[in-house]
Task: inverse folding
């Protein structure tokens, strides 16, 4: 167990950094002290690892609920668009200050990664797994005989079987006695279900695993949580309300009869026997089983929906049959609707998407409410977070193939953008409405241009054009005006003279 499985990219020796706190790295499930026997300090069956697994199972169970599943489908459909021929993702390299040959190589390797992930066909499934579990793992497989060939396969790993571990090397300060962090070592621990008895697992190098989290953490910042985490309480409340509503309707909806049987002066034992005989006489029901074709007698079975039989002594009103009315207000489900809306709010999905009868209108964007705009921004944040999966894989691919070094990547990573195909009509309608409002404002100030406002001020403050856009727009306008043929002025001159000729000239 001393050896670590997988490959590791050689790096330059980092300068020694001494601190009293370990570096902040998201997604580290277990932080341990360096040293000791491996099987003693990491236990995949208990402690924090077990809590994380239980949490993931809760997320997956919650995703099977109809309302939650509908909300997740809306999120996935907006985030990953697979209806276009070019694929759901692309890469933008315009901001990198490198030759075109380097950009082409980066672009080529990126689309190889997209092909290995099979994003064109499984992109929605991958994104859904990441969204529900709050994390996703991939094993980056290379040919050990030819590492320069890069990654040849990507295999998804179940988050229940793998955890990220960090060993922290500490030393006590002689002056204060406080523990100082001298260094850290990170790796992954994989454990199959048949290995639970050993409380051990396979250690895997950090470079061999691609890891992407949701970016959300628990209150103690020690555990990664899913985007479904804050909806668990509301979902449980909704389930209980629905179950209680079903029980109430089953028990209170039908009308039941109350039989008051006159038993006279019969003793208690004979009165009970007489009552049972009356009950069996009128409750004897033959039931036909459509599955087996048999006829069964259910006289000995009593459910909560059947009638009540009560004895009545002599001197009363004799045998009587009354009706117990069913429950009222059974059609009111305001509390159910309340928790459904609350569940959708917890999932950041617009409430109007809960109402299936509501139709999407392609009219004016004033019909777009604030929730849809918030939802689009939420989708953009999810895309930016999910893009870390591509960044981590692309980094290792470029380094293995010698296209760049790790130092080069650190200088490039902020200029590389993973672009997701957008298919949201609300965004288009919003942009059209914004342009319409700007044009209307331009018409209002048109009479004051040249006297109180300059054309450049109008372009920058009303049309919101940048300096580059202003220059490009001026060049395009000048080019279009030069292409248009000018009308000959002598053809219009006689008509202008005739129209402007005074009426009194003919009388003179």
Result:
């Amino acid at each position: 167990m001393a050896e670590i499985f997988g490959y590791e990219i050689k790096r330059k020796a980092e300068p020694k950094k001494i601190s009293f706190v370990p570096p902040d790295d998201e997604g580290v499930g277990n932080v341990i002290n360096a040293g000791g026997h491996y099987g003693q300090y990491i236990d995949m069956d208990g402690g924090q690892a077990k809590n994380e697994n239980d949490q993931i199972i809760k997320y997956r169970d919650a995703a099977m609920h109809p309302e939650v599943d509908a909300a997740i489908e809306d999120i996935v459909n907006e985030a990953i668009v697979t209806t276009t021929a070019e694929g759901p993702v692309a890469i933008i390299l315009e901001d990198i200050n490198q030759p075109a040959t380097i950009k082409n190589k980066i672009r080529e390797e990126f689309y190889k990664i997209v092909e290995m992930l099979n994003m064109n066909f499984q992109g929605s499934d991958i994104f859904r797994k990441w969204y529900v579990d709050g994390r996703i793992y991939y094993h980056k497989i290379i040919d050990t005989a030819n590492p320069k060939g890069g990654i040849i396969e990507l295999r998804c790993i179940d988050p229940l079987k793998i955890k990220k571990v960090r060993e922290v090397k500490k030393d006590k300060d002689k002056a204060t006695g406080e523990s100082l962090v001298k260094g850290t070592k990170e790796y992954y621990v994989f454990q199959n279900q048949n290995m639970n008895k050993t409380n051990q697992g396979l250690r895997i190098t950090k470079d061999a695993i691609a890891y992407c989290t949701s970016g959300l953490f628990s209150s103690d910042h020690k555990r990664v949580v899913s985007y479904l985490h804050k909806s668990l309480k509301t979902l449980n409340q909704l389930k209980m309300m629905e179950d209680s509503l079903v029980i109430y309707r089953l028990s209170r909806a039908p009308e039941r009869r109350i039989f008051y049987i006159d038993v006279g002066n019969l003793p208690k034992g004979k009165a009970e026997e007489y009552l049972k005989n009356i009950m069996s006489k009128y409750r004897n029901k033959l039931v036909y089983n459509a599955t087996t074709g048999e006829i069964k007698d259910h006289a000995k079975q009593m459910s909560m929906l059947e009638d009540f039989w009560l004895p009545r002594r002599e001197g009363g009103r004799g045998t009587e049959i009354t009706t117990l009315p069913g429950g009222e207000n059974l059609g009111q489900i305001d509390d159910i609707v309340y928790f459904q809306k609350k569940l959708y709010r917890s999932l950041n999905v617009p409430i109007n998407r809960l109402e299936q009868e509501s139709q999407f209108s392609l009219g004016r964007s004033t019909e777009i409410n604030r929730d849809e705009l918030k939802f689009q921004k939420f989708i953009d944040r999810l895309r930016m977070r999910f893009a870390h999966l591509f960044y981590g894989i692309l980094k290792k691919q470029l380094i293995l193939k010698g296209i760049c070094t790790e130092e080069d990547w650190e200088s490039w990573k902020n200029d590389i953008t993973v672009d997701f195909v957008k298919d949201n009509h609300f965004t288009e309608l919003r942009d059209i409405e914004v342009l319409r409002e700007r044009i209307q404002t331009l018409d209002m100030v048109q009479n004051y241009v040249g006297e109180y406002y300059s054309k450049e001020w109008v372009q920058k403050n009303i049309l919101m054009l940048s300096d580059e856009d202003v220059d490009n727009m001026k060049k395009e306008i000048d080019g279009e005006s030069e292409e248009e043929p000018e009308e000959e002025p002598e053809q219009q001159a006689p008509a202008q003279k005739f129209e402007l000729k005074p009426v009194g000239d003919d009388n003179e």
